[in-house]
Predict the 3D structure of the following.
Amino acid sequence: MTELLSGGTWKWCVIPIVLFFGLRLPLVVHQAGGQDEQVFAVPGWTVANEGVPRVPYLVTDNRATFYQNADRCLMALPPGLFYFQAPFFQVLPGGYPTARMPLLFGGCLAIGLCFFAAIRFGGGWNAALFAASLLAFSRPLMFTSILARPDLLCMLCGWGAVLTLWTPSEDWNWNWKRIVVAGALCGLGGLFHPFALVFCLQCGVWVLAAKGSSRERITRGCLLAFSAAAVLMLWLPLIVKFPQEFQSQFFANVVDRAGPGLGSRLLNPIPSFRHHFGLIWEFFGPLQAAFFGFGAIFSLAVLFRQRTSHAGALAMIVGSSLYLTATVAGMHPTKGYWVYPTFWVCVTIGLALQPWLTSNTVRIRYLSTAAAVVVGLVIFVPGGGLRSAGIYWVNWGDPRFHAGKFIDQVLEEMPEEGLYLADTSYVFDIYLSGRETLLCQQRELFYGDAEIPFRYLLAAGEAVQDEWPKQYGAILSTTVGTQVTAQDCFVNIYVPSESVE
């Protein structure tokens, strides 16, 4: 730790952070709305302007959508993300890019924490730089840092909590201040996402199982729990004000979707692992999934063979992270949770390769470094977003590739009167234009047979793929933009079928 702060070692972590920021900023700025951003982007704007997180263009009474009365208050997940987004909306223009900014900076912080973790577990700057670089170019960090979802901010709290509790000393001289800070981070993580239960369990078991009398263990456990609860209680005023929305949205979205009870999943994790294997394969991609899977096993074996003092602790952290991520998430379809164990696997791989990266034999050191670079290029370049970043940088701000500017130009040619239906891609932008807006989703599920007298339906993403316009009796009027590449902006404009009869 002293070496990190006083010896200038920390400067090495700037390299992967700068590269990460340069590769991900263009995606954050230019891309249209993506997964779940239709509900996780606008609440930050409403907090900044109204004080309450809500989705004003999503008006539904169906609990099965997970968003019943979300136009009054969004309670499907804890609101921490929205309050972190609000300051950005105070100084930057409204839109998806601003909603993503906390996640982009969160990704930078995650890389710095990974570097710090490798140092804290006994690694040198070489191992720390390698670990941080693995995380910086990984697909899990890419996806969680370019979309307005709370996953990454929750994970940051978890990594911070575990690193706060960890001490390299053998006597485990527990400091109550560290326990309070770790508990507060656990509580803050809970304000972002219920996934915080994973690192709450890790920290809880840690403070209870560590050396000490029964009284000391109970005291540590209570201190951790009370600290976490005190921070988590910040959500209580919103729950008291909107109890119906909390009951209908949070339970439908989180509790009901996880599958059988947590206890049964912990005792029988096989169904959860089977479910998440497919998600991991898709989320990481085949190359990175294989690399991190085999890398975790290989690196832990190397550390144990080297008889490092931290091997046991790292094995417990990595193993429990993998086990708890699958079982706590259960049958939930979200993939972003897996960035949490990815962080620890990166640290482990970096530490395991340290003897080769720092070998006294110059030839071994150079060959190891060269091999690491080559393997990294082969595994991390495919599917790493480099092509998209390059196109966006070369065409920075061009409406052909800039979703926000593109839809603004489209709307300039359209009337302001009438109801606009829009899918995830542009619904936030259309709402900010001042037009009456309703989110285009599966009609029967979200709106039943209610009459929706819309004037235009604009779609470019899932609505087109799933042919939702047909459910609204809409027919294609025109297409603006092109679909030559995945980075090109386009939108299909539909009108009610009766308007052309």
The first strand starts at residue 419 and ends at 422. The longest helix spans residues 270-305. Strands lie at 419-422, 436-439, 454-459, 474-481, 490-496. The two ends are 74 Å apart (CA to CA).
